[in-house]
Amino acid sequence: MDAREHFHDLLDSLRPLLRAGEGFTLDYRAEDSEFVRFNRARVRQAGQVQQAYATLALYLGERHARFELSLTGVAGEDRTRLRHALERLRAVVPALAPDPYLRLNREPWRSESAEAGTMPDGAAAVGQIVAAAAGLDLAGIYAAGPQYQGFASSWGALGWHAASSFNFDWSLFHANGQAVKSTYAGQRWDAPAFARRMASAREQLEYLGRPALTLAPGDYRAYLAPVALDEIFDLLSGGFSAQALASGASPLQRLFASSARLSPRLTLEERIAGGLAPAFTSEGPRQDLRLLASGLPGERLVGSRSAAEYGLTANGAGAHEHPLSPVMAGGDLDEGDILSRLDTGLYIGNLWYLNFSDRPAGRLTGMTRFATFWVENGQLNAPVNTMRFDDSVFSFLGPHLEALTREPEMILPAGTYGARQSGSRTLPGALLGRFTLTL
């Protein structure tokens, strides 16, 4: 039984069990993933993961509760598990207090998409990786395969989404313990594109053998590669939440209050087409939204609870109110001109340990990671020892944002804890006239 049939079989078995006055929602997630771990450029572990989970929520007026269960993939056994979950919810829900902010979408809607992609043959991809890493100390993980999400409600909602993707996340280690971290991910494996990505990592690895520089705290010109900018936007993504903005917890509070601005070079959209997230959430169909328009605040992500509490209109954002497939418009900086435009300053390929040093002011802190290089006169010069930055997003992505790369890069989450993460972010690299290092 394939995943779609499995989901519909569960749904068909659930509907006849419903009693008068009851309503339900059913969330379904599954994957069929191939994982390969590398160490010292050799395959150390390979395996296949097939798993599925369902979350059943039962509603009785304004009372509700949910039950998450793992599934076996065997139709009869999973119908029994779902029936037992329903019985346990029936024993609990009548005793719960009414939820004053419950605003269920009771409109019938349908959404179905299947993005198959062009998955590489696993053996061929592994063979290319091993060949490209010959003579190197490579450690990493390759994950690939389809992921499935379904949603249905007793009020006629029905959504199904299937998408295939791959993600190879790896590091090349120098004999001195330093490393260059790289990723190659997407829906269509392109052998020449992967070869270029590996060649770039090899080139950076050669510079790690030079004596590392320790820079004095201060302001520096800098280039943030797309993966580094992704770390920043991962932290800022909750800033577009209607709940966070209404409660004063958004790091973009000053932007939406018109007391600060971002660079007019920044335009950010929550875009359904082309992303790997489904076109729906458990609260209904998602919408294309313009979150930033030439540096000015755009639309907010509004879930049903925020809509009820603050008198807003829900836009299918889901309970977490985070963008699922944001796309930032590129600029006029060609990839081949990055170093020459930077001239002298920092080339930052990765950031880590990011957090807020002053959330209401949009101030972030974090560490440079892996291969951060000092550039002089448009040429890589030497690696830079790990440094901490502390700066306001309204500064380095405000008046000090000089350019964005022309071709944004689709970045997929590499997390596999419990299950492969879904969604995507498409971001360019950013050339900054000033970036503040503190120690």
Automatic annotation (TrEMBL):
- Pfam families annotated for this entry? PmbA_TldD_3rd
Report the domain of life of the source organism.
Answer: Bacteria
Keywords tagged on the record: Hydrolase, Protease
Q: Signal among the record's keywords? A: no
Q: Which GO terms describe its molecular function?
A: metallopeptidase activity
Entry keyword annotation includes Thylakoid: no
- InterPro entries xref list: Metalloprtase-TldD/E_C (IPR045569), TldD/PmbA_sf (IPR036059)
Query: Which GO BP terms sit in this record?
Result: proteolysis
User: Which positions fall inside the Metalloprotease TldD/E C-terminal domain?
Assistant: 217-435
Q: Tell me the protein's name.
A: Zn-dependent protease-like protein
